[in-house]
Design brief:
Blueprint: H1 2-5, H2 8-20, H3 26-29, E1 44-48, E2 65-69, H4 70-77, H5 83-91
Antiparallel strand pairs: 1-2
Length: 92
């Protein structure tokens, strides 16, 4: 996983996902989970909805990746934001 995250394929894909999401946190733009700033483009990260250790084959799938701010990324990582909800936000 660490080798993958440091590679060119992930760098390209993470830029593509940020562009798709217009460089905004998808949870903040939906004004959910204690959003303080709806148009949040600070400290953005690309999150794997289904983690690499569960299904490595989904590592570059657009429907498994979402742009989140650091705050919401931490919430998503521990399951405080349901995967199903993140997948719905991608479609919006």
């Amino acid at each position: 996983a660490d080798k993958f995250r440091g590679g060119k394929a992930w760098t390209r894909k993470s830029i593509e996902i940020r562009q798709r999401d217009k460089y905004l946190c998808k949870v903040c733009i939906a004004n959910r989970y204690n959003t303080l700033k709806q148009f949040n483009y600070d400290k953005l990260e690309v999150h794997h909805i289904v983690p690499l250790n569960e299904d490595y084959n989904k590592r570059l799938d657009n429907d498994n990746l979402i742009t989140l701010c650091n705050y919401h990324h931490k919430m998503a990582e521990v399951g405080e934001i349901p995967r199903e909800e993140l997948q719905e936000l991608i479609k919006e």
